[in-house]
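G., the chain you wanted modeled:
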Amino acid sequence: MGGNFDCGRRILAIGNKVRRFLDASFARIGLTGPQGAILHFIYTQGKCRDIFQRDVEAAFDIRRSSVTSVIHGLEQSGFIRRENVEDDGRLKKLALTPKAVNIAEHIAELLDETNKMLVKNLKKQDIDCLDMLLEKIDGNIP
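Predicted structure as C-alpha cells:
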C-alpha cells in the first residue's frame, strides 16, 4: 500500500467534522451531539423493547462512565428518567419523558438529513462498498 495513505487520520478527521456538525445542530435544540444520538436510539429502539444503559454502551461502543455522564445530563435536563423493571429491582430501564418525545421527530429528521449529506454524490454501490469497508476496518480493531 502507498506510504501516503493514513487511514486512521482520515477516519479521525471525518469523525471530528461530523461530530462538530452534529454538536452545532443539536445545540439549537438544547442538546449535545451524544445526547441527541442517545435520545434517538432510546426513542427508536424503545418502541419494541426496554432499553438499558448497557444497550447504549453496546450500540455506540462507548465506556460505561461516558454513558453514565450523558444519561445523567439527560435526566437533569428532563429528557429521560430511569424506571424500575418488574422482574428485577436492580435494573433500571431508560424511558423518554414527554419533553423528549416532543423533539424526537426533529432529532430523527436531523440525523436523516445528516446521513443524506454524508452519502450525497455516492451511488448505491459506493454506499454498499463503504459499509463493507467500514465493517472490515471496525473488525480489525481489537
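The radius of gyration is 17 Å.

Shout if anything looks off.
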